[in-house]
Fold:
Amino acid sequence: MALPWLIGAAVVALGAAAVSAFSDDSDSGSGGNGDEERRRRERAEQERKARAHKEKLESMKEAFVQEGMQRANDLQQSLEGQIKVILLGNKPFKAILDNDEEYHNPVSPTYVEVYDLQFLPQGTQDYLVKLESLYDVELEPEEELMKVPVRLKEIDHKLAQLKALREKL
Amino acid sequence: MSDLILREQLLTSFQTLKSDFMASLDDAKKLDSEFQKAQKTFAVRMDSHIRQAQKRLPEENPLSSQIDGILSAISDTDKAWQANLASYDKGLSFRQDFQDSLLVFVFGKVKSGKSSLGNYIAWGHTDPSENLKSSVPISLQPEYFTAANTNVVNGDADDEAKHRREFRVGATEATSSIQGFRLPGLTWVDSPGLHSVTGSNGKLAQEYVAHADLILYIMNSAAPGRASDLKEIKELKSKGKETLILITGSDINEEDWDDELGEIVTRVQMKSKETRQMQREYIAKELEDIDSNDILSNSARYAQEHLTDPKEMQNSGMVQLFSRLHSISQNQGVQIKRAVPMTNFSNFLDKCRKELQPYTKLTNDLDAEIAHLESSVPKVMARYTREAQKEMYAIIDDTFNSLENYRDDDEQMNQELRYARRSWNDKLQQVIGIALENGLADITKELKHAVDNTWYSASLELPNFSIEKVTEQIPDGQVNGTKKRNSGWGGLGGLVAGGVAGFMLGGPAGAFLGSSLAGGAGSMAGSAFGSDAKLKTKTIELNVGDNLESLKKQLRDSYASVVKTVIEDESKKVLTSTLAEMRTVTLLVATELREVNERVEAMKALSLQKIIKNGV
Amino acid sequence: MTAKDSMASADLDVLLKQASDILARKQGQDKPVIAVWGMMNAGKSYLLNMLTHHYNAEYFPTKDTRETAQLKQFEGESYIFLDTPGLDAHDADDQVAMDGAAKADVVLFVHQPKGELEKIELDFLKQLKESFGVYAEKNIVLVISKADAESLEKIEQIEQKVLEQCHLHLGFAPESFLISGTRFHKGIQQHKDGLVKASHLQELKQHIETLGIDVRAVREERIRHVQNTLLLEISAAEEALNDEKLQLEDNLYWNFARFNDAMLSLDLSMTLKKVEYMNERILGE
Structure:
């Protein structure tokens, strides 16, 4: 949903402009000696650098989130036919660049546990857990996929029967 | 019961019992799996709603930090609630021996024939040979177990039955411990008398008695109805459990001379019907309040020799015992046992429902409070608007009063007006700022108060959860005057200027105040906050003289209008909409809780259905 | 499940049944089992009635049509006699016949002297030989029935031919008897010893007894044979199942390959960005 936060931002912009207008006013015409001038210029320079640095960091964070969002659909499609992926909300990418902890902890139990997906290769299982921890998602395995562990179990059962038989003979 | 129940049929019906038990457990586990999925969905969605809402909060909004605090408080509460739910034991299992099968607890003195009977049930033979045992398919082989030794003289060594895979039967030997075996659907526990069992075994025996579906008391036909036996039976009967008295060994060796072979041949025969009857009647009399159906005479030895002859099996008395066992396996008590996991789970769902109530109340109350606050914003701001307007009137009136002195001097009057305009605009900025700050202070204070209250009155009882700690995260309201002017709102200067500039008034007053930017009369919105929101003024000479009164009125009205509109607009955009945003979250949470409640209700109904379907 | 799968599981069930049959047989009955084989109407049932003293009332039905569809069994004092459906009577009966063959300790192969052995008889004898292994020569007995139907010369000729066939196709010539059931029956009913003798039935009876039936050894051998066959089939089944399992696991791998790649790529990208970010942060401090 669209929210009127932008207006608040515009107010800030205006406010900042007003402030700067004020400070410019108060600064002009004081005409001190050269040292003060230099120090003032240095301070201004420092502030500019700090601001640029902050903006750079902000834009890196933003780009990080953007990429996460862009890849969301790709990931969703790559699982098509196997697992249904529902992305929640309009900002489902959870990870933050600044965070020291690698990933947002997935809600336990994981979908792998809830849907008994341990028959999948371990790598894929790990990736699914990672998916859960990076995005607000609901996962639901498709019917076709869930037939596989059933069949695998059948096969194992039959193999066990055959093994027992073999031992008896 | 017209069908003759032989050992095979009995074992089959026990196996059916076992698979029924397993099926019931399976049902309960399936239901639990559904529950877990619902739980997971709820957790993931809650996490998403709260986190994304927090992300959406703009930094500069004065309410943001409080809203953020509220969201964190909701998140903490939710996590504590979920953790609590996860900590409950759902009871999805049967307690081995006591709950997972038909439990038969067998009492009897040493050498009462108890062990022979047990072996007969287990293997079909009172003293099974190794050959016989290995001929039984593995799925039907009994599994033996013992409780610790009870130190009876001549007793058996630890775990002997387990090693020998049978009960000791023999002329001089005795069994001293509580021992038993399990077949699918049947747990048969063998014990010396109640008073021969002491200490921890005594406790164990009591537990078996409490959970038993049938208690068998065995006495040997050679010495039935001993005083000590009768005393114990009376005590057992007092426990109110289904009890059967068995007089075993009701057989005799009949001897005959075989002419051909030139030797004695013996045949096992049942004691006469009359003899057996007499024995039963004697015991019945001694025990007073016993049903004659509850005393049986039988002979395992005779039974095993006439396995294929139904008539003789009947004669052996074994068939009646089997019939009894069979009918017990169908009875209510056993069905109740079978329903244990589902019943436990159903009770767990009840707990869940109960826990949902305070949580739901909290959410609903929170939403209501915020809705209330949201609707009260205009009222609060109205009061401060009036105050601000009054100040404007005052300053304008003052100016015009002093202007009286310059009635005749046009030039001077214009100059004064120009100076006055500057000070009016300053004042305007000031009073609007004060009004907005006051409003903000009131609202934030009220918000904190209302929100804290909902938590306190929600009566949530969660372990490791302190309402103080949770609500601490929500900052207090902003107190007016302790912070810099206009600190709650950024850049009011430009805002006000824009606001004034946006007004286009007709006539000389309008011309006097200055031209508007793009947009028509009275338009506010975008144009007011455009990037070129600087005041443009024109210096216009006015022929003010006779128009002084009307000018004063127009100015009063204009400034009052600006005050009202700016305050309304700003408070709407910043306060009202923030609160509305908060409400979307509370409503989402309420929806999720409602869904969970519905799922739990549905599962509860299903669980009850299953319990009833299985005949409890 | 595909059609192939359900067929496979049906086969598996058959395997399991066969195996449990064998294991049951290992304990088995004590009395030796004499089974009688041959083409439809070769005279098997009549012979059996005579061997089991059912002179007046039939125990084994002898009507001309496909009577014996099941394996009919008679437990005598020392032996168990087994009657079988004719080899050519019906397709389904062949399986029944082979089941019976598995149970027998001695096989009386009955052949009508209309000519030499037909292909279907030879094929069956070959299977039987495999099943008996080393004991085949002793325990497969040839009975030329209805010896009263032709002249002795003709009968002996046919007998000769048949024995040659056996030699050629089986590698041995079994002990053979020329029997007339009707002659025996008449002799018994009319108390004519001469007829009885001429029927040669008593000789057959004695031979059966003098086989010195070492039942256990024979049985063990045959069980071992079936066991080996079964073990081979088990191996084949195991292999098929393991193949299927591998296939399924392979599919899983491929079906998730794109996802795995996408996650890997995301992971790398995130790590890279994090490193750049950290560097930038340090630079600015």
User: Anything to note?
Assistant: Chain C has two domains: 33-212, 233-284.
